[in-house]
Amino acid sequence: MDESMKADTLQEEPMGIIDAMGVMDLITDIAGMWDKKMKDWLREYNITHSQFNALVIFKEKGSQTPGELSKMLSCTPCNVTGIVDRLEQGGLVTRERSDQDRRVVDVALTEKGRALAADLEKAALPELTRLNTGVLGKLDAEEIQLLHDALPKLLGGITES
After folding, report:
1. Residues 148, 150, 153, CA angle at the centre, nearest 5°?
2. Residue 115 above 60 pLDDT?
3. Which of the chain's ends, N or C, has fewer CB atoms near its CB within 10 Å?
4. Who has greater pLDDT, 62 or 5?
């Protein structure tokens, strides 16, 4: 068998089950540890990691429809409804019908939400930068780019399975 055929054969063969489980376990461990650190840090603000991410999106991009928010948070519309419900109950966001199309609901920060988002930005960015540097600082730029390119493929593979 010539070298090009060997390379093609290697690319077609899936990773061994034990190696694949090891990779998935590592990804799960990393995500779990990151989530725990975020939960511990956000506990004092009485918000969840998902709520924090939504607040950051609203602060950076302004009002969003639930569908837009769902895409940016990479979660289902049902999950977004729950996130927005809790933010609304806390007085952090409002839901308003669009002037252009009454079927469309826009979600926007309230004054209280803007204030919390500003406080979180002041407190969170240094903390997140520290965590990101501690985590991603272990990798060089090429490795980070490889991860950035590979992880969406893994996510797509899981959602298609």
Report:
1. 120
2. yes
3. C
4. 62
